[in-house]
Amino acid sequence: MYTVGFDSEKYLQLQSEKILERIEMFENKLYLEFGGKLFDDYHAARVLPGYRPDAKVQLLKTLADKAEIVIAINASDINSNKAIGDTGIAYDDDVLRLIDEFRMNGLYVGSVVISQYVGQPAADKFKLYLESLGITVYVIHYIPGSDYPSNIQLILSDEGYGNNDFIETTRPLVVITAPGPGSGKMVTCLSQLYHEYKRGVKAGYAKFETFPIWNIPLKHMINLAYEAATADINDVNMIDPFHLEAYGESAVNYNRDIEVFPILNAMFTRIWGESPYLSPTDMGVNMTGFCIDDEICAEASKQEIIRRYFYTQLDYVKGNVQKSALTKLELLMKNSELTASDRAPVSPALERAAQTGGPCIAITLPDGHIITGKTSELLGASSAALLNSLKYLADIDDRVPLISPVVIEPIQRLKVGYLGNENPRLHTDEVLISLAISTATNPMAELVLEQLPKLMNSEAHSTVILSQVDISVFRQLGVNITCEPVYQNKRLFHR
Known about the structure:
The chain is α/β, with parallel strands linked by helices. It contains 20 helices and 12 strands. The strands form 3 sheets. A 6-stranded parallel beta sheet has the order 4-3-2-5-1-6, sandwiched between helices. Strand 9 and strand 10 (370-374) form a beta hairpin.
């Protein structure tokens, strides 16, 4: 049963108040580095049940009259056509998507900044394209030298940040966001602080990251789930030593911020004359930890660690991550005393596969009921499990056919005879389309389709690696799907 463990309304109130308070600390000008995902933060929604995936956008909407958004993108990421792991969208395309999403939510996007620029042709092309769309673009140059960022004298000079464009902004809160990590959010903020100082403005800097949560224990399951989610970039949660020394209180931060803080602090001191921050935790404005139900979120985080374990196994088999990432997940599982069987659908799926001798899927519905599906001549295991779940939710006998062979057979002929597919079985998207077609002649098909929203927050597990089509459909339906890290066949190429 889905149980709420996070107070979203309280969060929006506390978080907006904290940001407004931080703006007032400076001369009514704050550059806020916005980390994490703004529109589709499903990790936060899974570990903090009740957290809205678009909570950060809702937060910005409460500050819409004060906020201006600047989107940063690394020139090297444009040049390499880097893509976002969850969606496969290239970073440059995602800049356009973000602009559209912000505008549709009534938020003002002031400009785009291209960081780490050294004359990359793809970056030049993208800049011209954005400008042709009426979008203002600024450039932040790459600062050469093996001692960057410790060479503060060079950085805070006309040859360093002084060589960058000054981003013209008009509002007191400037939110610096990006398609993904490594896009240049922090350097954009720091470059602006330098330029504002040169213009006689004491602008401020703050950082907004949801995870790790600073005011809960280091080894809390929520923070461990963050480590699991960032195993591929090797983020490590740590007690902030600067905060402990300054205040005598433990606070959780992560390795990269702690390592760079002495340099940042020296920059702040040089720009402002003194630093307003005694620790990297001081730079943050995260109020998430004040809005959680500890027990509920800890249990949700355990499940996320297990899911991440399966995701990382899958990525390793596909060659997308190094062995070290998988080793870290295995260690997290062991230290958290978790096993794969602690994930509800795993054992039922494996047991069903052992009985049938073929691929199977188990789905744990929000009410705790478990439904399984196996491969047949007409349907893949994903499609069978999906249909069986919808029948259960609609209170229709499992033996009642919903899709006529008259509908299925032409689709199979199309797939095999004309599209060259060797597998005639219907994928989940094809099943749903067939079900929609069947509503014209079968009233029960309409009833079944109406159950789709009830699949939200279900958990599913497959005994083989699924096609990207099936994975995408489950995710669109709000079903958290994991897979055993084995393919159904021994081919080297898999779609």
